[in-house]
Design brief:
With about 400 residues, this protein is an alpha+beta fold. The chain is about 45% helix and about 15% strand.
Length: about 400
């Protein structure tokens, strides 16, 4: 399932651990990777291997297959740093950091202290009616047509509407914002990725400057008053945080929704179970987060360390795919089964000090999407004759999904 690569391999890397992983082909496939590729990875890969293509641009790193090993490194920021791990700034020859994603302790604690109250469960729950209205408005556009382009008509627009409102950015520019996001997250071309980073940076810096001159009732204006170390955030700290919200807010929930609704479309008994008892939705969303996690994440070794007897050198990337660890048979009994009563922990939204800042918003968006779609749409299925494409890459997602119902 994985072939040895021809790249230059560091001398401490055993040849038998060198692989090129199909999971990072960064192309569409019509084979569901959750049902085929990921179980095969668990059956054939060792606990750790050196994958030559885990990072965009076919850059290498150590790949951890087991959930238990990933839990350990997520709880060990001393040995595994996130500082600069996304290479966003480096790609365009700069040195800013994505906040709080690329920040290490102790200053990470101060940033989260400023940020957490704005993303608390109570703050996010206060958005419930607004989020529900967004979902209903989008669903009303197609519910009587008997079919929909789920990605284009719902899952791309729904979470992005919320984030653009939060940041005070214009809804009419959504197509352009989504194009930039796709060029950053769903490409293997380093130049395309860098050009998109520049576009996003230039735009956000203009918006930040506009808020300095004329503050508004939006989140960007609030960030200008955040403090760290007894001072207000500087320009690049404000930008680094806004960039983080742009990255997370315009993609992750969209990708999760595509995976979830593709599953529901192909498993009508699961749809009908939730319709019959909507009180299952909260636990069902946690199981969906486990079973349909989308993100591959990274850490960078800060010193020489061993994992399963293999030497990792300082500066080397250590990689884990939440879609893979979420279906680890050594961690989850019968991981391929989607069970609404599982109540199992998962790492789809991170773990440890870097647990996703927007996790409460993401959960609420997913719960409301499931509730409103199932309440408005009768039993649905993948449109007759339509083949579902799955994108293999650092964000594993359904790239197109057409649904129909009677």
């Amino acid at each position: 399932m994985a072939t040895a690569a021809q790249n230059d391999i560091p001398p401490h890397v055993p040849a038998e651990l060198v692989v090129r992983l199909p999971l990072y082909a960064r192309v569409n496939t019509y084979d569901n990777p959750q049902e085929t590729l990921i179980p095969e990875m668990h059956a054939t890969l060792p606990p750790i291997c050196y994958a030559t293509n885990v990072f965009p641009g076919d850059q290498p790193g150590w790949f951890l297959r087991r959930a238990e090993d990933v839990q350990a490194i997520l709880r060990d920021p001393d040995n595994f740093t996130k500082n600069g791990m996304g290479k966003w700034a480096q790609n365009i020859g700069e040195d800013w950091l994505v906040i709080p994603t690329e920040i290490d302790p102790p200053i990470h604690t101060d940033y989260r202290k400023a940020l957490n109250p704005h993303f608390s469960p109570q703050k996010m729950f206060a958005l419930k009616d607004q989020i529900r209205d967004r979902a209903r408005t989008l669903i009303d556009e197609f519910k009587d047509r008997g079919e929909c382009d789920f990605i284009g008509q719902f899952s791309e627009q729904y979470p992005v509407n919320i984030v653009l409102d939060l940041l005070g950015l214009p809804q009419e520019r959504m197509p352009e914002f989504l194009e930039w996001e796709k060029e950053m997250l769903h490409t293997n071309d380093w130049q395309v990725r860098g050009d998109a980073v520049r576009k996003v940076k230039n735009y956000l810096m203009e918006e930040i400057q506009a808020r300095r001159q004329s503050p508004r009732d939006d989140y960007i204006s609030k960030v200008l008053d955040f403090e760290v170390d007894g001072r207000k955030w500087n320009e690049m700290e404000v930008f680094g945080h806004c960039f983080n919200l742009y990255l997370g807010g315009l993609d992750t929930v969209t990708s999760l929704l595509g995976n979830i609704f593709n599953f529901l479309a192909q498993n009508p008994e699961k749809q009908n179970s939730l319709r019959a008892d909507p009180s299952q939705t909260v636990l069902a969303v946690e199981e969906f987060l486990r079973g349909f996690a989308v993100v591959t994440a990274f850490r960078i070794a800060t010193r020489e360390i061993e994992i399963h007897g293999q030497k990792i050198m300082p500066g080397e990337y250590v990689t884990f795919a939440s879609p893979v660890i979420s279906r680890d048979p050594e961690f989850y009994p019968e991981p391929q089964d989607i069970r609404f009563d599982r109540k199992a922990p998962h790492m789809a939204l991170g773990s440890g000090i870097h647990k996703c800042l927007g996790m409460h918003l993401a959960r609420l968006e997913l719960q409301i999407a499931v509730e409103e779609f199932l309440a408005a749409i009768p039993e649905f299925r993948v449109k007759d004759g339509f083949r579902v494409p799955y994108f293999l890459g650092n964000i594993l997602h359904v790239s197109d999904l057409h649904l129909q119902w009677n």
